[in-house]
Write a structure and sequence with these properties.
- The chain is α+β, with helices and mostly antiparallel strands and 406 residues long.
- It folds into two domains: 138 residues, Jelly Rolls; 238 residues, SGNH hydrolase (Rossmann fold, 3-Layer(aba) Sandwich), CATH 3.40.50.1110.
- Helix content is 28%, strand content 26%.
- It is built from twelve helices and 17 strands.
- Strands 1, 3, 4, 7, 10 and 12 form a six-stranded antiparallel sheet that branches. Strands 2, 5, 6, 8, 9 and 11 form a six-stranded antiparallel sheet that branches. The protein has a five-stranded parallel sheet with strand order 14-13-15-16-17, sandwiched between helices.
- β3 and β4 form a beta hairpin.
- The two termini are 41 Å apart.
């Protein structure tokens, strides 16, 4: 790819009819769309699009699998909205793993810029702009291929405005990941599959692989998000879904993440054992090596909100349900020991990072549950530190180690 002139995939200033250009105003799940192609007070020219209910969707354009993209646009909205990059495979089927982030609130037109990675199975990508709680106006949309260096620089700029991540990984973190470490060091391809829900998807979309490639200059990572919204291992362990969501992607490292496992470590154990029992799956050869596995605790979504939702929906007796929630972190750690898999207390590291910030928690979130680009960079930096090469601790102020535990 030419670093001086990255290819433009999609560009419009909406001066001509968006519908004629392949854009569509889509209805919300239970209602009618409310939006317009509007004349007057545009960011440039005379025209822009707006939406109050539903979303505007662009036509699909070609995408490079795992390729980086730069999205820029002008936005005007009193409260944050959403933008999505939605991917289609070679058959035109929408992939469940999208990329979603905030359109940041602005009383007047404001330029906004984001970088993202296309899904590993993407053949095409289309954009969506969706309001959250108020009218969202969009103008001057441009989507183009992006260079790795520009993508990393954007992520670094976001991280520079965040509180420092001081998570210190345990010395034993490589005990169950020897092949992962070897591939990072030697430059053999490392296929990383993140399994879970939208939180797992946000973690995959954090661009953490750029940080690992900087730490391990020879590393060649491919990150594959294999997710379904609101879904955890309670679902994946059933009806041979491990084959569809895990084995067909031929992972070298499987990371089980998210908030939707129903506080049930036995469901996670079920997925781990199915993966290990079936190394040869459709699309995988009989010589496929069993993947190494890592389990992450929940993160991002406020704990009390998650707990309340579980207690409201569960059929367990109240006392048993409360105990299941309270004991979940220790049971995950015990499961990791018993099954011989790696684990990371992502919740503790996330909470520690936010405690060190003068910003409110909402500054890192695109809604009440999910991370925005700022929050995703906290997730990326936690993973960076967890997978970092072993180096001596750097002394901090007053002789304290710079490798603070959360």
């Amino acid at each position: 790819m030419n670093a001086e002139a990255p290819s433009v995939l999609l560009e419009t200033d909406f001066e001509h009819s968006p519908v004629e250009k392949g854009w569509a105003l889509r209805a919300p799940p239970n209602g009618s769309p409310a939006g317009a192609w509007t004349k007057g007070a545009a960011a440039s020219g005379e025209r822009f699009i707006s939406v109050r209910q539903g979303h505007w969707e662009s036509p699909p354009v070609p995408a490079t699998p795992s390729g980086y993209c730069r999205l820029s646009f002008q936005a005007r909205t009193p409260v944050d909205g959403y933008w999505f990059a939605v991917f289609e495979d070679a058959e035109g089927k929408e992939l469940q793993a999208d990329c979603c982030d905030s359109v940041f609130a602005a009383s007047g037109w404001q330029p906004q810029e984001f970088f993202f990675r296309a899904h590993a199975l993407a053949a095409r990508v289309k954009l969506r702009f969706q309001p959250l709680a108020a009218l969202l106006a969009i103008d001057d949309v441009r989507l183009q291929a992006a260079e790795t260096a520009a993508t990393a620089a954007w992520a670094d700029a976001l991280a520079a405005a965040n509180p420092p991540v001081r998570y210190a990984p345990p010395a034993t973190r490589w005990e169950h990941l020897p092949r992962t470490l070897k591939k990072l060091k030697t430059g053999a391809e490392l296929r990383v599959v993140l399994l879970g829900d939208s939180i797992a998807n946000d973690t995959a979309n954090s661009l953490f692989e750029l940080l690992l490639q900087r730490a391990y200059p020879q590393a060649r990572l491919q990150v594959i998000s294999s997710v379904r919204g609101g879904t955890g291992c309670v679902y994946y362990q059933q009806e041979n879904r491990v084959n569809e969501y895990v084995l067909r992607h031929r992972p070298d490292l499987l990371i089980i993440a998210g908030i939707s496992h129903g506080y049930d470590p036995e469901a996670i154990r079920g997925v781990i054992r199915q993966v290990r029992a079936a190394p040869a799956a459709d699309g995988a050869s009989a010589t496929t090596t069993e993947p190494e596995i890592m389990v992450l605790t929940d993160a991002v979504a406020p704990e009390e909100r998650m707990k309340a939702a579980f207690l409201k929906g569960t059929k367990l007796p109240p006392a048993e349900a409360e105990a299941q929630v309270a004991r979940f972190p220790e049971r995950i750690e015990r499961l990791a020991r018993e099954e011989g898999v790696a684990w990371l207390n992502l919740r503790a590291a996330w909470n520690a990072a936010l405690r060190g910030s003068p910003r409110p928690e909402a500054w890192f979130l695109r809604d009440e549950i999910h991370a925005n680009c700022r929050g995703k960079q906290i997730l990326a930096r936690i993973l960076e530190r967890h997978f970092a090469p072993d180096t001596p601790a750097v002394p901090g102020p007053a002789g304290q180690s710079g490798r603070d535990q959360p």
